[in-house]
């Protein structure tokens, strides 16, 4: 095991104050992710782009006819996605909030 990592974790877990700070940071990151999901889903809805069922998380998947071709075409235009069966998967966690609408528009154009 990583001695430094274990040492830090042990220190955090032994302090109520540090635990609270960690939980607050996690809560803030989860809220950012929730906000990004809302922004992206709204942008997709405006373009009549459907998504696979999604409750929460780092990724959102979109059904497309030819996932490999769509992903390749988008990659040639600076958008890097992964494919899933019957669609493409977007890592919304790695996209700044202000670029999510633009991303939805690119997906719409190339799908």
Plain-language structure description:
With 111 residues, the chain is mainly alpha-helical. Helices cover 56% and strands 12% of the residues. The protein has 4 helices and 3 strands. The chain has helices at residues 3-13, 16-46, 67-75, 100-110, and strands spanning 59-63, 82-84, 87-91. It has a 3-stranded antiparallel β-sheet with strand order 1-3-2, with helices on one face. A hairpin with a 2-residue loop joins strand 2 and strand 3 (87-91). Helix 2 (16-46) crosses helix 4. The longest helix is centred in the N-terminal third of the chain and has 31 residues, at 16-46. The mean pLDDT is 92.
What's the short story on this structure?
The protein is mainly alpha-helical.
* Average pLDDT: 92
Q: Helical proportion? A: 55-70%
Order of helices and strands: HHEHEEH
Q: Could you give a short account of the major beta sheet?
A: 3 strands, antiparallel
Rounded to an integer, what's the Rg over CA atoms?
A: 18 Å
Alpha carbon gap, first and last residue: 45 Å
Strand content is 5-15%
Count of DSSP strands? 3
Could you say which overall geometry the principal axes of the C-alpha atoms support? elongated
Unreliable stretches covering 5 or more consecutive residues? none
- Helices, by number, come to 4
The order of strands across the largest sheet is: 1-3-2
* Helix vs. strand class: mainly alpha
């Amino acid at each position: 095991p990583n001695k430094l990592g274990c040492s830090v974790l042990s220190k955090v877990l032994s302090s109520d104050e540090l635990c609270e700070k960690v939980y607050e940071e996690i809560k803030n990151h989860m809220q950012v992710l929730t906000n990004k999901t809302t922004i992206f889903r709204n942008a997709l809805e405006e373009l009549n782009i459907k998504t696979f069922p999604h409750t929460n998380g780092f990724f959102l998947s979109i059904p497309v006819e030819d996932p490999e071709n769509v992903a390749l075409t988008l990659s040639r235009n600076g958008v890097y996605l992964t494919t899933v069966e019957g669609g493409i998967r977007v890592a919304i966690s790695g996209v700044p909030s202000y670029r999510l609408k633009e991303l939805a528009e690119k997906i719409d154009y190339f799908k």
